[in-house]
């Protein structure tokens, strides 16, 4: 073996060994200070508790009462009897904010030392909530990071107002208006003649969609579109002996989900919707024996069990006619 080749192998082994040592060494996440500050706030501040925060700055404000009666404010540790969630859980340690407050009339709370939540990007705002909720019993957040809302810069604070009231979430009556702020096209759909009773407040958006994420398209709650629809429309769930093949999994093949000018939420009026797949019936005119034509009416006048039937027709097949 030539000396130059031996020298090359030695250098290669030395470089490879050095790279392996670097890969196996502990590397700190950079920048650590900014990363931790993004989650917890100022590292040079200390936690002082709700009594100091609220007593110094928010003693007589409604915000204090709302938080104490809220879902977060009611959580108390069984071991220490201290609140599991308090002001500093979201706003960061508050010792610098209340330092010197109350000594003179000019001394005010230094809010700039707290986490400036409104200035954080949407993903960082959600991270403040997820540092607790991702570890808690919150299965609805399983799909959040990959959800449509998270990927379009929607944060938890866009829907949840923690200081607004005890429930800290929008009510079912207000939900549609909240969703319409972004989904203006859906608002227009509900103005159609035939629509789901969202404007009448009989159902809410979350009855069909999961805003925190779903493995299904359009954030649907069901495994399939039909499974979502048949939670209310159980009479068309089946299974039937004679199935209408196009709607065994997806009701959207014929129906529009939110609103349509054609009842009942049909994509097109009858018989034109059916004629997209079926050729129609050829019949003879009763007035002129030599004149043949096509007579069209609403298909469901005869085929009333259009979603499926257990009753065979005279030919032995299923014609979806209720007898």
Brief summary:
The protein is mostly helical and 323 residues long. It has eleven helices and six strands.
Task: Explain this structure.
The chain has 323 residues and is mostly helical. Among the domains are: 30-168, no CATH class; 235-309, no CATH class. It is built from eleven helices and six strands. The chain has helices spanning 3-24, 32-40, 50-57, 62-68, 87-91, 122-133, 148-151, 172-180, 184-189, 225-229, 272-275, and strands at residues 194-195, 242-243, 259-260, 282-284, 292-294, 308-309. The strands form three sheets. The protein has a two-stranded antiparallel ribbon. The longest helix is centred in the N-terminal third of the chain and has 22 residues, at 3-24. The radius of gyration is 32 Å and the shape is elongated. The model has no long low-confidence stretch (mean pLDDT 80).
